[in-house]
Design goal:
alpha/beta, TIM Barrel, six-stranded parallel sheet, 33% helix, globular, binds fe (ii) ion
């Protein structure tokens, strides 16, 4: 039997554990009304409450921004939406605003822009299409690092077109990029190629963050009740810093 198929089969038939929730969730679409994530303030508040009582202490809200492509969602729009949400955030729940930037052509030229929405330590969340690799991925990482940012590539395991070129991930790490895993990827929800990438990165300890990438209440329900391969969950816990609360 093909090795990868064998590996995936064994993952589906092995002992299971609940998904490990991060203490700081660095990637979510809980900010309402600005992208394909949450749309109603009351649903966002419900998600914050439920995830907080499940163990998430801090939420970095990261709406999609497609720089120069979508005029509907830019930094000003999401800042305004965040200001509107803040009065409704329950006391004791910490939130911050950042963004998930799509690496569109020419994005590398924006690396110096001081209006980029970054994390408190200068980290910046970037993503690519699920259909093809951005031609300027390496250039963008270089420019962001040169500008003093710390790029985090969102859910590398979801770029299934990279499953047959896994060495590319080592190269990205060498260039100063870090990786964030989506929790639901541990369940195999994104297919066999995704699982091949996930396993490669986990085995090498190449993930820095675990995050929810939460888009809706039904997705939250699935996440809170989901289980995944025990060994994968244990590896995820061991390699992703923010699961235990340290801010890296
Ligand atoms: Fe996302």
């Amino acid at each position: 039997m093909d090795q990868n198929l064998k590996m995936i089969k064994s993952i589906f038939s092995s002992p299971k554990l609940r998904l490990p929730l991060p203490t700081v969730d660095v990637h979510s679409h809980i900010l309402p009304g600005v992208d394909d994530g949450f749309q109603r303030v009351e649903d966002s508040v419900e998600a914050l409450r439920r995830m907080h009582s499940a163990g998430v202490n801090e939420f970095i809200l990261t709406p999609h921004i497609h720089p120069g492509v979508s005029m509907e969602t830019d930094e000003n729009v999401v800042k305004k939406a965040y200001e509107n949400l803040l009065p409704y955030v329950p006391a004791g729940i910490k939130t911050r605003l950042a963004a998930e930037y799509m690496i569109v052509p020419g994005f590398e030229k924006k690396a110096d822009d001081n209006y980029l929405l970054t994390y408190p330590d200068g980290s910046i969340l970037i993503e690519m299409s699920y259909l093809f690799k951005s031609d300027n991925l390496e250039k963008t990482i270089f420019s962001l690092v040169m500008a003093g940012h710390k790029p985090i590539l969102a859910h590398p395991e979801r770029y299934s077109y990279m499953a047959d070129n896994l060495k590319t991930f080592d190269n990205l790490i060498d260039r100063g990029c870090r990786f964030q895993m989506n929790l639901m990827s541990l369940t195999g929800a994104y297919g066999p190629e995704s699982m091949i990438i996930l396993k490669y990165l986990l085995d090498r300890g190449l993930y820095t963050y675990l995050a929810t990438d939460l888009h809706s209440l039904p997705q939250m329900e699935r996440m809170l009740s989901a289980v995944a391969d025990k060994k994968l969950v244990e590896k995820a816990l061991a390699t992703a810093g923010n699961t235990t609360g340290s801010w890296r």
